[in-house]
Amino acid sequence: MATFNKGILGGFSGKVGTVVGANWRGKDIMQNLPKPSQKDPTEKQLLQQAKFKLAVAFLQPLKVIQSQYFGSGSGVKSRVNLATSYIINEAIQVVAGIPELMYNKILITKGELTGFQNATLSTQAGGVLDLEWEDNSSQGNASVTDQVSLVCYCKELKDFQIFEGIVMRSDLMASVTLPNFCIGKSVEVWAFLNTEKQTFASNSFYLGEHTVV
Questions:
Q1: Distance from CA of residue 209 to its chain's centroid?
Q2: Cα dihedral sign for 142, 144, 146, 148?
Q3: Confidence (pTM)
Q4: Per-residue pLDDT, 31
Q5: Phi, psi of 143 (to 5 degrees)
Q6: Number of structural domains found in the chain
Q7: Parent domain of 24
Q8: pLDDT tens digits for range 148-188
Q9: Please, which residues bridge with residue 186 across strands?
Q10: Stretch 41-63: mean pLDDT, rounded?
């Protein structure tokens, strides 16, 4: 791979002859076309491909959140890539040769902001989810103005419902209402906090699997 500045071709993307051009992190890069492999993929390679496909499909609706709130985004990997690598390495198990997500190990956000203290979730009729937590606004780098967000995922429907910045840390409770099509379904739920200026976030907190009533 090579980088170039205003060469004879200028910046370009896509295939030109035997090379591919692209813009990566603000730099124009150029590399040779990969040679097609003549070998069938091994079982290990197929399993890794399946893990990657599972992680990418699950995380796609979270890209905006994770591009802002997953790790530092420094170095070669973007925040979204860091989130994908984390899921593949830490939150997928293989059962009878099939990769499965371990929802209790998934992180929606990853950061240094002080998280929740004793957060609990309960369900109410009409698709209502009630989140409560204890005041820890004086701990670490926490602030009363930190914003609370809730992320819900229905495995059966492969549907995310995301509620961002619904209340502040000092409110100690939040309520959201899921769409009617979620009633009777099970959802996995996470919550996270981010600073008022949206500069960084806490590690997301897994609140468990709940049946929407």
A1: 18
A2: positive
A3: 0.82
A4: 75
A5: -140, 150
A6: 3
A7: 2-32
A8: 999 999 999 999 999 999 999 999 999 999 999 999 999 99
A9: 211
A10: 97
